[in-house]
Amino acid sequence: MPICQNCESFVTERYVKVFEPEDIARPRACPHCEDMVRRGKEVRAKKN
């Protein structure tokens, strides 16, 4: 099962397939990441 690079939470293979480009096996951020925001296939730090 893939692990998030940012918070090290487990995510599903389906999540990776939907939200990450084909060449990335471990997501850069996931729904558990409180400090990151996902916009489409891009990931950025959350603004305060």
Automatic annotation (TrEMBL):
Xref: InterPro entries: DUF7563
Superkingdom of the source species: Archaea
Pfam family, one: DUF7563
The protein's name in its UniProt record: Small CPxCG-related zinc finger protein
